Amino acid sequence: LFHSIYGVYIAFTAKSNLSNFGYFRNWMFMFQRITGIITLIFIAWHVWETRIAIGFGWAELNYQLMEGILTEPFFFWFYIVGVVSTTFHFSNGLWSFCVSWGITVSPRSQLIMTYASIIIFVAISYVGVRTLFQFAYGI
Asked: What's the pTM?
C-alpha cells in the first residue's frame, strides 16, 4: 500500500527531462512511472474482480472464473497490458533497487544488471502472457 501511494506521488511530481536528454535510462525512468500507474489500476481491478468478489460470495475460485474474464476481448487485452506493465515495472525496479542500494556501483555492473533485468522482464512476461492465452483460448 505504501509503495503504491508513494509511487503515485512520485509519478505525478517527478520531472522528466526526456526532451533534453533522450538517453536509455531517462526512457526507463519515464516508463517506470507510466507502468506504475497502469500496474496500480490493473492490480486494483484484478483484486476486486477476484479476491473481493470471492470474499463476498459473488464468484467462486476456480478455473472458470479467470476463463470467463479472459474470454472477453477487452479484458483479455487489459490483462495483457497489465501483466506486461507489471513485469516491466518489477524488472526495471530491480535495476533501480540495485543502483540506489549500492549493489551495482560500477558502470559495468549496472550494464550487467540492465541485461539481467531485460532477461527477467522477457521471461516473466512470456510466462504471464502464455498463461493468459491458455485461460482465454486453451492454447
From this structure: 0.86
